[in-house]
Write a structure and sequence with these properties.
The complex is a heterodimer of chains A (45) and B (229).
Chain A (H helix, E strand, L loop, with lengths): L2 H42 L1
Chain B lengths: L3 H25 L13 H28 L2 H32 L8 H21 L8 H14 L3 H11 L17 H43 L1
Helix pairs in contact in B: 1-7, 2-3, 2-5, 2-7, 3-4, 3-7, 4-5, 4-6
Classes of the chains: A mainly alpha (45), B mainly alpha (229).
């Protein structure tokens, strides 16, 4: 297998997978924060 | 996430399409005679560059909409598309550089297509830095959104230059869409089209995911400010 081909594919797929994973993890963290804030608001009302 | 019902099937469709695209690259497309296996980088390089340009077009349209309506959703969509565009154009530059090393024996050359793409990357990276500036106590949300919208419109001036650079100026970069057939065999064209579609589905998935995240962050910020105020 050609080294340049492997390097280009590795760079592209690793970066895309990392970005997708980061978005999902950040999304989950924000969802948790939103739930906590809603609970706090309900407790204060 | 507000788009959860759409996102899961869309992500699965994108993954399936990318798998099909890989089959086309490795099993269906013939090996190019002059360059050999390295030519296969083209099948991921071109969709990355194409969808990066589409991302910047979305930034342009969303920025105009924000300037006209002051809609927060347009501002968030512009930011999401810019982030995705910077990632995809960055990867197009990296994959192109690796291809250039194999084809031209240089990692980089100041060719019109490469130079305009690099300028575009820096302009939109600057746009992202500006968007993040309000977090450090810089510009307020409204003002930051306005300035970003203006930059989102102005920055788009470079995008047609990138697209037409290989045709306007003498460029070593191949202008595949400009020439009839682009010197590609039909099997190669099928592979290009399948991968363009597959990367399009991935692009849409990531854009909706980033947009949903932006909306959720905005909601959390509004709730925090409401509680503090």
């Amino acid at each position: 297998m050609n080294g340049y081909l492997v390097a280009a594919n590795a760079a592209v797929w690793f970066a895309l997978a990392a970005y997708g994973t980061l978005l999902v993890l950040r999304g989950r963290a924000v969802e948790r924060r939103l739930k906590q804030l809603e609970m706090l608001r309900e407790r204060n009302d | 996430m507000p788009n959860k019902r759409i996102l899961a099937p869309l992500a699965l469709a994108a993954l399936a399409a990318l798998a099909v695209g890989q089959w086309f690259i490795w099993a269906y497309a013939p090996i190019e005679e002059t360059m050999g296996l390295v030519q296969k980088i083209f099948y991921i390089h071109m969709p990355l560059a194409w969808w990066a340009l589409v991302s910047f077009f979305v930034v342009f349209v969303a920025s105009i909409r924000h300037l006209m309506t002051r809609s927060a959703a347009s501002d968030i969509l512009a930011g999401a598309a810019a982030e995705l565009g910077v990632l995809l154009s960055g990867l197009a530059l990296v994959s192109g550089s690796i291809w250039g090393r194999a084809a031209w024996n240089v990692w980089w050359t100041w060719d019109p297509r490469l130079t305009t793409t690099l300028i575009m990357w820096f302009v939109y990276a600057g746009y992202l830095v500006l968007r993040g500036s309000s977090a450090g106590g810089g510009m307020g949300g409204e003002r930051r959104a306005m300035v970003c919208a203006v930059l989102g419109v102005v920055a788009f001036l470079d995008v047609p230059l990138v697209f037409y650079s290989a045709r306007i100026w003498r460029s070593v970069h191949p202008a595949v869409l400009a020439s009839q057939g682009g010197g590609l065999e039909p099997e190669m064209w099928h592979t290009v089209l399948v991968n363009l579609l597959a990367f399009g589905l991935l692009w849409l998935t990531l854009l909706l995911l980033r947009f949903g995240l932006g909306r959720a962050e905005e909601r959390a910020q509004a709730m925090l400010q409401g509680r503090e105020g």
